[in-house]
Amino acid sequence: MDNFIFRNPTKIYFGKGMENSTGEAVGEFSHNILLHYGGGSIKKTGLYERITASLKSAGVTWTELPGVMPNPRLSLVQEGIRICREKNIDFILAVGGGSVIDSAKAIAAGVPYEGDVWDFCENKAVPEEAIGLGAVLTIPAAGSESSNRAVITKEEGQLKRAFGSDLLYPDFSILNPELAMTLPPYQRACGIADMMAHLLERYFTNSSPVELTDRMIEAVLKTVIHNGPSVMMDGDTYDAWAEIMWSGAIAHNGSLNTGRLGDWATHQIEHELSGIYDVAHGAGLSALFPHWMRYVINQDLKRFVQIAVRVWNVDQNFKSDEETAYAGIEALEQFWRSLGLPTTLSELGIPGDRLEEMAGKCAGETEKPQGQFVKLYKKDVQAILEMAL
Amino acid sequence: MDNFIFRNPTKIYFGKGMENSTGEAVGEFSHNILLHYGGGSIKKTGLYERITASLKSAGVTWTELPGVMPNPRLSLVQEGIRICREKNIDFILAVGGGSVIDSAKAIAAGVPYEGDVWDFCENKAVPEEAIGLGAVLTIPAAGSESSNRAVITKEEGQLKRAFGSDLLYPDFSILNPELAMTLPPYQRACGIADMMAHLLERYFTNSSPVELTDRMIEAVLKTVIHNGPSVMMDGDTYDAWAEIMWSGAIAHNGSLNTGRLGDWATHQIEHELSGIYDVAHGAGLSALFPHWMRYVINQDLKRFVQIAVRVWNVDQNFKSDEETAYAGIEALEQFWRSLGLPTTLSELGIPGDRLEEMAGKCAGETEKPQGQFVKLYKKDVQAILEMAL
């Protein structure tokens, strides 16, 4: 196990009706906030009314900044920073999924920073302070509700980049599984792929031994695999959604990568995809991950055998680790297909003509590789993209 | 899954040599602290010197209060409170196992409280503030390094009682598995029993469904069962100790009882044992838990089957849930015996003459039952104690 330092201070309010505690939760931090959300679905579902009623009753006033799109844009972040400075706002309430929360995190770090907030994404600066931040989660997927990271897209150059800081952990996050039940099926499936990818990125590590976190990641994966098909249905799916929503937060809250270094190349490759093609992050991940796995399988074949047997219940062929390991990858693909997710780029409508460009944006030819489990250079990334076509 | 609110703010420093960061960690909070420890073993191992050197280099001054004994005493807590008030100390550094950390927690809550700190143990008051607290852990067992609870023994009446408050989460805890490697074998085994008991108390619940936390508890149990025998050996056992030490913290940090209500009767019964006989808490738990399990097995037989199959790899008898469930309990007993732990009271030298007295102190005849999974009254507690003889 690697040495580590870990602290996740986010306060989780979990369960039915918890969004009615929003005002009380916000009021512990501020009474003059930015209310940040997406395209307005929260108005259709009635969530907007419940939240603003709760804010009002707690004496909290707010300025609204809607309009966050999937793959949240730098320009809206910059507008949020301007508004917060102008109105002396010191707390942001994000109501939505990972994109809204990520956008709020970038605003929170940007308000006290004198330079351009994009500097954080280019490692030119590190956040030294941030204003407060809370979230009401509507889409279990990104795990941003309990993580210290954010992903932002810069329109110019179609660049999608992540940055992180312990200052970005939300002060609180409100998770009511009922709020996820109105999501369209494709978005539910994409969320499942996203949280599974967060678990897989952590699972593939050269840190050794890491038995406890291996087993805990496997536990969360099995729970997601068991409950995923249930939340694709209609009807009373609260219990299954509760498992999925809490799994999505735990997958990305940092506890499962204590003492181990995850890979994260697939996420970075996907960022190039969705930076250009604006596909859903989870769908990009499901189209890439199995191919990445086949490309790197010989780095630690036994680890692929372990996940096949323990998570996918593959009947182990003790004479052939290869057969067992590949059967695990096939089970993953089959599971994602059963949810209606793509496992190739073609299914996403992505053609083969810009693979080299994406590979080049993602990794250098001899420097700046992606990935920790296996270091991938441009030619490797291009090969994986070609396999994924 | 039950609704819940969860926040664990303890910052964990984990790994080799981490105790050398003590001064830096403390310095974020205070430069005038109480250094609280036990019987002086930290001087023999050299830990005392490393920690005080680290404090000195960070400009931290300290007042020492050694002498914490297993089952920490109220009188020493009261002395600690007096010293902190007298010297305007606002932070306690606990160096030791659960007893030292629990004693420090009681002091931390007692300093700003006008009444007697024992009030918290009798539910006559709830801590409303507390001074700061950090820990350097030397015994993986109690989980107090990352929990919000403390257990204190009042000499008068031989009463051992727990209290809790989110104010009691340590600000930080330093976990270096190397520090556990000098423990005597019996103490290692008692620690393993203690952390397993924390997992079992959480496992047996009527909250349903709770798949994610079931699977995560199982993951931690399997890790402890796999690594427990290794840490009983001498030689280079760092890797196994790392799994055990982090398991012990996670077992009790609150994350594994999110959305579920654990039982905790066995802990309360054990408090009566060790209140009178001063046995090691872990040994008391190993002597009681299997008997509690047999007494309550029909509350949810399927849950006992689940743990038998998933954790103990019992070959399931699909025609007999009883056989499968009991085989799981026997596997637990066998495991504990293999570590040299008692599974009866007789092995602890506890005679049968005060069982009724202990049962009466623990639970009422028709009110104040113990346990959430199954409510136990005096006659039930007495029956379990008799089974355990």
TrEMBL record, chains A, B:
Keywords annotated in UniProt: Oxidoreductase
PANTHER family from the UniProt entry: ALCOHOL DEHYDROGENASE YQHD
Domain annotation Alcohol dehydrogenase iron-type/glycerol dehydrogenase GldA: ranges: 9-177
Protein name: Iron-containing alcohol dehydrogenase
GO cellular component, one term: cytosol
Keyword Methyltransferase among record annotations: no
InterPro entries for the chain: ADH_Fe/GldA, ADH_Fe_C, ADH_Fe_CS, BDH-like
Gene Ontology terms for molecular function: alcohol dehydrogenase (NADP+) activity; butanol dehydrogenase (NAD+) activity; metal ion binding; methylglyoxal reductase (NADPH) (acetol producing) activity
Family: Belongs to the iron-containing alcohol dehydrogenase family.
Organism of derivation: Oceanispirochaeta crateris
Domain Fe-containing alcohol dehydrogenase-like C-terminal: 192-388
Pfam family, one: ADH_Fe_C
